Amino acid sequence: MSDVRTELRRVWRRSARYRPATATGWIIALTVAAYLVQLATGGALQRAWQYAPVYSLPATGAPFEPWRMLTAALLHQPITPPGSLIGIVHIGFNMYALYLFGRPLEGVLGRARMVAVYVLGALGGSLTVLAAAFIPIAGVQTGVTTPVIGASGAVFAVLGAVAVVQRRLGVDVRALVVIIGINLALGFVLTGIAWQAHVGGLLVGALVGGVLIANRGPRRAVRARLAVGAIAAVLVVLALVPAVLVR
């Protein structure tokens, strides 16, 4: 067993030059790998991981699978019909935006905190989709069986966090706000876009980013962890409450 462990450590060290050097890079690599598996499985992975409000409502008779709120962020529009580039554009835009804004955010907040922004943003985006199944948002009510996929909610969380962090550091964020506004508006204009996830991710990312930048430094590390933990707990409770209340 010790020989196996030694060999695994050796292989891991030798692969250092090929591994992503940042948490942002790991997220991109994982998402691209999931997309390739999604394409290779002919939709099986998408059916198993995509999210729809019905998976949070066991009273409907559908399986209760709330983890789909997070796994949906690993999926993107498939390349259909043959020759269509919509799927490539979908994942390409999301990963490029994450690459541009995730690395600077990671440089300021650190790896773990950037991952927290991303994951909680994905959850917040799915929560907004779930809420839209009960309460019309901007006059639109989402069907409980309407599936959503994509990392857009998590990416918008990163954008929201970057805007708040830069503003706190005294950086002019007007250009970034314009970019965010344009991309939010596109969600209302173009069809097939879950703009509710964009809004939810943006709000959660801004909240988490604000908490983290306000509690930067080793002396406030515990306070930052408690605050982010509290936000995560609230989001989890909100994700589970409909399963209890909707009968």
From TrEMBL:
It is a multi-pass membrane protein. Its EC number is 3.4.21.-. Residues 65-213 form the Peptidase S54 rhomboid domain. Keywords: Hydrolase, Membrane, Protease, Transmembrane, Transmembrane helix. GO terms for biological process: proteolysis. The chain crosses the membrane at residues 21-41, 84-102, 114-138, 144-164, 171-189, 195-214, 226-246. One of its GO terms (molecular function) is peptidase activity. Belongs to the peptidase S54 family. This is Rhomboid family intramembrane serine protease. It comes from Amnibacterium endophyticum. The lineage of its organism: Bacteria, Bacillati, Actinomycetota, Actinomycetes, Micrococcales.
